């Protein structure tokens, strides 16, 4: 049986991040961490301890990320998706869309993986002259192939192996450069 295609909105809820008024100031005694685009430009994971902390004093409850939520960068050339796996109180700014799987036959890790695929990224319509942005509707309309849970898990496991391989290659290259520098230094001294 061929894999069915679904709009993202059929598999997950999509909401905008929180719009903060004014500049955000770090408060060491803050009770909520704030995720901004700059926090994910270089990182592939949300690291709450590295985010700025604020004291939440709004009249409503903070729209916290839940473990399994996916943050998608809404502005810029790359609309990278990152899965939140933590338990700390984190609020994503309006620079993100938050995707929450709503069907039991969809793994959040799989959804995140599909959103990050080059063909999925290319499918997103971007607008704006200087800073490109995607609309909530464009993200909701993204077509998602939905294989069985077992196949979703196999794809996630395969991606993790590839990621580990990439990390090992980088470490090998770094070690080789250090060894070459050591050899050069030794030969120059002789």
Automatic annotation (TrEMBL):
GO molecular function: endonuclease activity
Residue ranges of domain Type I restriction modification DNA specificity in the record: 4-159
Gene3D superfamilies: DNA methylase specificity domains
One Pfam family cited in the UniProt record for this chain: Methylase_S
Keywords assigned: DNA-binding, Endonuclease, Hydrolase, Nuclease, Restriction system
Family: Belongs to the type-I restriction system S methylase family.
The protein's name: Restriction endonuclease subunit S
Species name: Serpens gallinarum
């Amino acid at each position: 049986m061929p894999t069915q295609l679904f709009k993202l909105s059929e598999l997950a809820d999509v909401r905008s991040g929180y719009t903060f008024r004014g500049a955000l100031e770090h408060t060491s005694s803050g009770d909520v961490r704030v995720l901004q685009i700059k926090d994910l430009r270089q990182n592939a994971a949300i690291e709450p301890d590295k985010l700025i902390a604020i004291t939440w004093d709004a009249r409503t409850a903070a729209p916290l990320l839940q473990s399994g939520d996916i943050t998608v960068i809404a502005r810029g050339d790359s609309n990278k998706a990152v899965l939140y796996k933590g338990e700390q109180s984190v609020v994503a700014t309006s620079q993100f869309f938050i995707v929450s799987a709503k069907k039991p036959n969809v793994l959040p890790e799989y959804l995140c993986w599909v959103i990050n695929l080059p063909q999925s990224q290319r499918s997103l319509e971007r607008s704006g002259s200087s800073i490109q942005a995607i609309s909530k509707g464009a993200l909701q309309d993204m077509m998602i192939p939905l294989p069985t849970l077992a196949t979703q898990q196999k794809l996630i496991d395969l991606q993790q192996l590839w990621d580990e391989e990439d990390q090992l290659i980088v470490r090998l290259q770094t070690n080789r450069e250090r060894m070459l520098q050591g050899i050069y230094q030794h030969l120059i001294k002789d």
